[in-house]
Amino acid sequence: MATEALIERILAAGDGPSASAIDALHELLDETAIDDGAAPKSVAEAARLVGLSAHTLRYYEQEGLVRPARNASGYREYAAPDLRRLVFLTRMRLSGMTMTDLKRYIRLAEQGPGTIPERRRIMLDQQERIRRQIRELSLALETTEYKIRAYDGHP
User: Fold this and answer.
1) Which of 61, 68, 102, 128 is the most buried (most CB within 10 A)?
2) CA 127: distance to chain centroid?
3) Which letter, b or e, does each residue of 75-108 get, where b requires 16 or more Cβ atoms within 10 Å of its Cβ?
């Protein structure tokens, strides 16, 4: 599923100003629904569970972001850690994180705890990008609202 479609699902899940987008995201991509003891999922099952297309899962694999095991027949099998990784990737893409930063972050995560300071820096940089985008969108909203008020009473 494209990021735009996921955003639409999350926004549609909110029931008003008190509804939290992050709560909607958690509901749509509930990590607790990923059972460590469950049998691995096929591409189609994994895609359905995390709300992505099978094409996106294959793309993430091709980019080295997830590495599902293969069964004896050569089919991908997504275990619980793979599914949790997909949830994380989906959340980060939703936040606007670039594929370059995601790849760098995943490479670092796979190297272990010694890379935590650098991973933290990636997340702090992403946080600042998100905050800037929120400020920019707030300004755009204020401008739009100003124009609407200016047009009140004029066809």
Assistant:
1) 68
2) 14
3) ebbbbeebbbbbbbbbbbbbeebeeebbeebbeb
What is the per-residue pLDDT across 102-135, written as a single tens digit (0 to 9) for each? 999 999 999 999 999 999 999 999 999 999 999 9
**Residue 24 near residue 31 (C-beta atoms within 8 A):** no
Of the candidates 54, 101, 103, 99, the one whose C-alpha atom is nearest the C-alpha of residue 78 is: 54
3-class SS letters over 26-38: HHHCCHHHCCCCC
* CA 89 – CA 96 distance, rounded (Å): 11
pLDDT in tens, 1-47: 445 565 666 666 655 444 455 565 555 555 546 777 888 999 999 99
Name the class of domain 3-151: mainly alpha
- C-alpha 129: how far from chain center: 15
- CA-CA distance, 103 to 63, in Å (whole number)? 8
Which has the closest alpha carbon to 24: 42, 8, 40, 11?
Answer: 11
